[in-house]
Amino acid sequence: MTDLFTPLTIGAVTFRNRIAVSPMCQYSSTDGYANDWHLIHLASRAVGGAGLVFTEAAAIEPRGRISPQDLGIWLDEHIEPLAKIVRAIHNFGAIAGIQLAHAGRKASTAPPWEGGQVLDTSNGGWHPVLSSSAIPFSENHPIPEALNTEGIQQIINDFVQAAQRSQEAGFKVIEIHAAHGYLLHQFLSPLSNKRNDEYGGSFENRTRLLREVVQAVREILPSDYPLWVRISATDWVENGWDIEQSIALAEKLNSLGVDLIDTSSGGSVPNAKIPFGAGYQTEFAARIRHEANILTGAVGLITSPEQADQIIRTGQADIVLIGREMLRNPYWALSAAKKLRQEKFSPVQYERAWL
Ligand code: FNR
């Protein structure tokens, strides 16, 4: 019986358990560079027993940052500070993963603790922001520039370059961020994509950019290198992106060599009615796993070890990603091991705590 502490092998990589630190923006970079905050923050979660530690969304180009303080990977100079973090995570027994992202029309905002408002060029923001169509995220957001064909090619190239640098930094998993209303999701969702060229309209056309990004990234990675995609399984809005389209997309991504669908939801529009509650997105991970026949990750209000273990035991997902609970408790995985198995599982330096 597979449980939360059964190792998981995907291609060349074996995770010691099925607990991942979900990507979480720290809004703590200058010019995209990782620093001591990222090192201590991420390495702590490796010491804390997680099987996989994801960085926050790393921007593939500066205009793709949610805030000026986002992590980035658009320069070769970004590699070494990231490599230092990767080495620490691997030294402490976890696998290091990176999430590659472009915020599209949701870029250029202040960090949440400064209010999260849109920043214009006079206060550190940038203009224009980019999207599939010239439709703002909300009335408070600027009208984005709809990418033309050259712009789309540039985005694909930027993802490829970012993937190349990620590999050079030593990351063993790359996740493409196509969820939460960011650029790739802005192409997927009919709520934000009103294009009438080959990148808009039909399901085939709306999914084209993501498929092209995946194909181009997959081409430069070894075939046994884990490539994941995070999607929003539904916009939670009628006539928006939904679970049926997600299942169809997952089938296509599977055939393009994507190993796992990290299944989140929402973020396309500000007013969606989302039924937040324990494990509220897990059903989508389960449906994609069973109907598209691909590995999935479950995320979203998974907080207790028993809940996480049950998701794995009942085959709803292959790995769980823990977000905020990992901020509250970097040792969540160690606590879960103790609770579920009552056996020693910790760095030797902490052994006496378990006697
Ligand atoms: C997030 N989330 C997020 N998601 C993502 O795909 N990339 C990111 O960079 C971020 N950044 C981020 C920052 C912070 C502070 C939070 C709290 C969340 C979403 C996160 O990965 C996760 O999907 C949600 O938080 C839901 O899981 P939990 O927190 O309920 O376990």
Low-confidence stretches: none
Major sheet characteristics: 8 strands, parallel, barrel
- Helix content range: 25-40%
Structural class: alpha/beta
Mean pLDDT: 97
Bound molecules: ligand FNR
Q: What is the straight-line distance between the termini?
A: 28 Å
Q: Whole-number radius of gyration?
A: 19 Å
Question: Strand percentage, roughly?
Answer: 15-25%
Helical segment count = 11
Name the helix and strand elements from N-terminus to C-terminus, one letter apiece: EEEHEHEEEHEHHHEHEHEHEHH
Shape: globular
Q: What's the total count of β strands?
A: 12
Read across the widest sheet, the strand sequence of neighbours is 3-4-5-8-9-10-11-12
Protein name: Oxidoreductase
Cofactor: FMN
Domain NADH:flavin oxidoreductase/NADH oxidase N-terminal: 3-342
Keywords: Flavoprotein, FMN, NADP, Oxidoreductase
Please explain how this structure is put together:
With 355 residues, the chain is of the alpha/beta class. Helix content is 33%, strand content 15%. It has an eight-stranded parallel β-barrel, surrounded by seven helices. A two-stranded antiparallel sheet has the order 1-2. The protein has a two-stranded parallel sheet with strand order 6-7. α1 (36-47) packs parallel to α2 (79-91) and α2 (79-91) crosses α3. Bound molecules: ligand FNR. Residues 3-342 form the NADH:flavin oxidoreductase/NADH oxidase N-terminal domain.
